[in-house]
Description:
The chain has 298 residues and is mainly beta.
Amino acid sequence: MLPIEVNTTEFNTLIKNKYGEVVESKLSDNFSELLLTHDLFSARLTLHGGHVLSWQPKGHDEVFWVSKKAQYQDGTAIRGGVPICWPWFGPYKNAGNHGFARTSVWQLGDIDINSAGIKVELILEGESKSSSWPYKFTMKQVLMFSTTFSQQLIIENLSHKDFQFSSALHSYFSVSNPANIAIPDLNSACFDDKIKQIQGCAPADVFNCTGPIDKIYYHNSTMTMFDKGWKRAIEIKKSNSAQWVLWNPGIDIAAGMADIHQQGEDEFVCLEAANTNWITVPNREKVALSQEIQVYKL
Ligand SMILES: O=P(O)(O)OC[C@H]1O[C@H](O)[C@H](O)[C@@H](O)[C@@H]1O
């Protein structure tokens, strides 16, 4: 494991070979990001939150959206990219939304660059990191950037008793406009509408994702988002995730959020590989969750 110090120089090459390189760069005084360049893609991530900010396979536009007003500071979640919501999703006790993984500093593990892409491992471990969730755990995040992007979380319970978690890989997908987004496969799923506070099971066309929209769909298989404006499709496969969460705040909620720039809500749709109900991990056992993303031109 390579603990990474915040660097005082602008750029610091961590690893480089004939296929690509990983460079550390400063985002702010105490916040750095890793810039990944490779023949097949470019990408960015930060150890704060173990957070993927960007992935752009060659020949395609950027896949993830990040707010121009995203805050890069300790203890704050970054608005955009792929926040890791864990060990809880949504509000929990008085401990705030979405858990501490997205606001914690992760450690950098192994990096491997080869002709197929760049693999980066990130580690978060701790004990009683929140008084609301007082367990001992380790979580390895395995990121594989290539013409596809895959992200796996391997969670191990190191406590002497079982623990429970809920989660989401809270991907912010960059879109031409939410009004142009269709996700036809969500039609077959039952859902909880968190805004209207109703549940539904009748097919409801998801042919427009204009916010405010905040729905939990009970569907565990692959989704494809079709963007008729940019003529591209984003396919997301997932494993060990029982729900999809579809979220866009819409103009009024976004106006009250300090870290979304004006009209930013017109630039993304969140489609989150989630477990909104508790998953139990027996002591000394592991659970793995993952998503794999691919983009296509239409
Ligand atoms: O503002 P955050 O804590 O990042 O949460 C942003 C959103 O995340 C999820 O999509 C939830 O379903 C929403 O209810 C929540 O508003």
